[in-house]
Amino acid sequence: MASTSYTKNLGLCAWESTDRPKRMDFVQDNNIIDTKLGEHIVDSGIHVTQDEKDAIASPYKVVTYVGDGAAQKTISLDKSYSYAIVFQKFYPPVEMDSNGNAVIRFAIVGRTFGSNADIMLKSNSIVVVQGASVTEGMKNNFNEDEGQYVIMLFR
Hints:
Blueprint: E1 5-6, E2 13-14, H1 23-41, H2 50-57, E3 60-66, E4 72-76, E5 83-88, E6 94-96, E7 102-104, E8 106-110, E9 114-115, E10 120-121, E11 125-129, E12 138-140, E13 148-154
Parallel strand pairs: 7-12
Antiparallel strand pairs: 1-2, 3-13, 4-11, 5-8, 5-13, 6-7, 8-9, 10-11
């Protein structure tokens, strides 16, 4: 005789002392366990991926660089980030030059929303710019020769 009663959640055999287990009962229980456990393991909706674990463990990173004066400079990153804050050390975020133009030294950039200063955040790098010319009364200043900069990156 097969099992008289079964478990509530998975319907596995809950043997009574009078039951006579058969091999097919064990095979059926193993198939139920394998199916349910297999569905659970591959359910990405309830599990955290390695990338998500990394983001939780280290949600931000601070990187510094020294400008070289080029129109563009690419800074390699160790992984992908969603957005960043870039600023030049020791200077205000915006300052007027002697010609009345705004020199921009602070930017927020995102991979999905762009930047206020033509900076590009790519999958594993960030591209900063040094504006040689003034556009609409503003000049980007993110790669001044010997300028010291900070990038705060967020996952």
